[in-house]
Amino acid sequence: MRDPTVAIYLTGVALTSRTFVYTLSVATLAGVPVAAGCTRPAPPPPEQKADAPGLGEVMVVVGRRFETAGRAAVANRWELAAFEAGELEELFEGDVPHAQLPKEGPTGQLPGMAKAFLESVPPDLLKAAETKDRAKFAAAFERAAAQCNACHASAAKAFILVPTVPGQPVPVLDPLPAASAGGGADAK
């Protein structure tokens, strides 16, 4: 007589020995690796699907939204500035967590930094936009840009510089001083 309390736990679900054999057979027929040492690579985590856009692609949209929020505030278009803050929140809730991380540079810190951004920046920008006070919005914008730039630096992408002043293009593309010793494009 079989003891009905005996169960095998597989992926957190209690299975009787009969159900386990059936599950194992179906998994094997479906080609799912079920034993250690299988050479088939694991599928990507559900939050980063193979066809998901790269984080860089998503950040282009983030930059555009951030720039538009700043330009709207400078133009006293407060409803638009608030709308763009809301769009930033949506991007960091839905698109950023599912984007594929860059293959180069350190990336382990990015999900935590993105979460911190989500929790602080959009609400701060929205609150500042609702006051219709340029100084308050400029302060919130500067704090947001500091977080952006810190994240870029942590990922070895400090060359992607977000302006700290509302109304400026994102990213900063001001000319840098020419390279010295004949290494620049102006060298003859």
Report on this model:
This protein has 188 residues and is mainly alpha-helical. The protein has a domain at 55-154: Four Helix Bundle (Hemerythrin (Met), subunit A) (Up-down Bundle), CATH 1.20.120.10. It has helices at residues 17-29, 55-74, 78-95, 110-131, 134-154, and strands spanning 8-10, 13-15. It has a two-stranded antiparallel ribbon. A hairpin with a 2-residue loop joins strand 1 and strand 2. Helix 2 packs antiparallel against helix 3 and helix 4 (110-131) runs antiparallel to helix 5. The longest helix is centred in the middle third of the chain and has 22 residues, at 110-131. The protein is globular, with a radius of gyration of 25 Å.
Output the keywords.
single chain; 188 residues; mainly alpha; Four Helix Bundle (Hemerythrin (Met), subunit A); two-stranded antiparallel ribbon; 5 helices; globular
Read across the widest sheet, the strand sequence of neighbours is 1-2
Secondary-structure element sequence?
EEHHHHH
**Helical percent range?**
40-55%
How far apart are the termini? 92 Å
What is the CATH homology-level superfamily of one domain? Cytochrome c/b562
Bulk shape:
globular
The DSSP helix count reads 5
The fold-level CATH name of one domain is Four Helix Bundle (Hemerythrin (Met), subunit A)
For this structure, the quaternary state is single chain
Largest sheet: 2 strands, antiparallel
CATH architecture classification of one domain: Up-down Bundle
